[in-house]
Amino acid sequence: MKALTVTSWGATPSIHEVDEPRRQPGFSVLRMLAAGVNPVDLAIGSGRFYGDMPDPPFIVGAEVVGEVVESDTVPLGTRAWGIVTTGGFAEYCSVPDGHLIPVPDDVDDTTAAAYGIAGLAGWMSVRTRGEVREGETVLVLGASGVVGQVAIQTARQSGAGRIVAVSRTKEGVERALGLGADWFVAIGDGDVATELRDSCAPGADLIIDMLWGPPFQMALGAAAPRARFIQVGNAAATTATVPGGSLRGGRFDVRGFSVFTEAHADVARSYHDLLAMVHAGAIRLAVEPLPLVEAPVAWMRQAAGTAGRKLVLVNP
Q1: Do residues 149 and 171 touch, judged by C-beta distance below 8 A?
Q2: I need a labelling partner for 29 at 20 to 30 A (CA). Which of 81, 115, 157, 187 fits?
Q3: 118-155 pLDDT tens trace
Q4: Can you tell me the distance from the alpha carbon of 195 to that of 279, in angstroms, rounded to the nearest whole number?
């Protein structure tokens, strides 16, 4: 079968012919129909992922939507989405039975993949991990990316009173405002820390952070007492210098989020809730499908930045 394979850390993976996976106890084999391309795939392919990883060569792809073709527990022909960490960007993939979530009949393959890892990061960071409340002020750091776009729309659908979006680009700002943000702060323009404080006054109750580093540090000054920070990604920096007094004085609550470590029941419920909102037209993304054979191109585009578009590999 064809598969996107990492042969050395950090190198762009390439399409190789490899053996199809053999089913093992507790696993199902899926024929891949669609698979979302995510920043976490690049982290895994470069050896920077926080979890366990195999040594090269290995097949990349952290999620897959597919048709079950072999299983002891799942009916054959079932369309399901699952997290696999590696192995998803291939014509066939082996997925733990406990990681599979059936895809609703009214959702197509590409959409089911587009709102997987990235969609859930935006949805769950606001709804379940962030516990957004009606009328609250929500600050989204990294609002122009796919996760940020979903977070903005989720906050708006959940009754947030004010949503402030932070982006590096004019296009990202315009996109965030079009999706429901009330105000924006452009990184790199003027006194960002002061703009954050003014735009969130009297303070942000919930901060969704895809950036980390200096943007997170500046957001501390814009936070309301007892604000909840949900740390989702580190696109700006891998570390942040945070004065302990700021956390203590504000009684801030900093919570990490990763769909890889959330309870399966919570992920399944959130996935279906999110897809219902997508099907109703309440949440949307610009989704671009590409054939599996163009996976190296999709990989390079993801590394360079997709300008807010969600790339999905498809296997006709």
Answers
A1: no
A2: 115
A3: 999 999 999 999 999 999 999 999 999 999 999 999 99
A4: 36
